[in-house]
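User: Let's play a game. I give you a shape written as tokens, and you guess the letters that built it. Ready? Here's round one.
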């Protein structure tokens, strides 16, 4: 009986980890609402077999809250997807960055988004390396309990569906079982990755004080006195 409910060992995000990130006080903001704060978005593009999904995260005091997620119906024109994102971008202040899947046709969609005024759009080509980086960053924010998600059964199912395997060259390959989708997973991974910033190198500033100058001057006098008396070693 245990084997029937045991979790697949190759699942990328264990159920327990996902459960720890659920914030039951958190609810999705609707398309019609006006929101304020610091937002970051991820747009996973699809059309015929996969869905386009938009995820928006609000950053508050190092906590990332999934504020909005929308899955577009299959065959939704890309123009409609861009229009949806553009409306939210204009209505919500402020979406700092929109990361898009620029693989294949996504490269042209990303360019179209920029041309419509979404200058905060950046494309990420989905390769084995970039997917590994994004998935690892998503898992890290969850492990650190920084990512909060509302109770969304469909999202939870997709997060727990993603599988991984290690290749012979040490890379991680991601997949999902036949008949399932992982569009929400990658939209959330993109949005979470958009919040990552380069850490500025530390600049150490040594200030000169009168006390420091006095001590240095006293030390120099002492050394000079030792030289004069022949006590220098």
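Assistant: Ready! My guess for every position:
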């Amino acid at each position: 009986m245990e084997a029937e409910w045991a979790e697949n060992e190759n699942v990328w995000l264990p159920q327990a980890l996902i459960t720890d990130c659920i914030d039951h006080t958190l609810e999705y903001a609707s398309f019609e609402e006006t929101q304020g704060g610091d937002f970051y978005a991820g747009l996973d593009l699809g059309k015929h077999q996969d869905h386009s999904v938009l995820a928006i995260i609000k950053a508050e005091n190092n906590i990332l809250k999934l504020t909005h997620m929308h899955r577009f119906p299959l065959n939704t024109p890309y123009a409609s997807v861009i229009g949806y994102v553009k409306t939210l971008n204009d209505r919500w202040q402020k979406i700092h960055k929109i990361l898009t899947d620029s693989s294949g046709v996504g490269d042209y969609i990303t360019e179209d988004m920029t041309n419509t005024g979404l200058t905060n759009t950046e494309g990420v080509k989905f390769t084995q390396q970039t997917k590994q980086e994004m998935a690892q960053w998503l898992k890290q924010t969850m492990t650190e309990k920084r990512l909060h998600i509302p109770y969304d059964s469909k999202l939870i199912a997709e997060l727990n569906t993603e599988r991984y395997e290690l290749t012979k060259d040490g890379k991680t390959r991601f997949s999902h079982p036949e008949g399932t989708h992982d569009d929400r997973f990658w939209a959330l991974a993109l949005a979470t990755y958009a919040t990552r910033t380069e850490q500025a190198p530390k600049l150490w500033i040594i200030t000169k004080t009168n006390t420091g100058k006095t001590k240095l001057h006293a030390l120099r006098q002492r050394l000079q006195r030792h030289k004069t008396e022949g006590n220098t070693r």
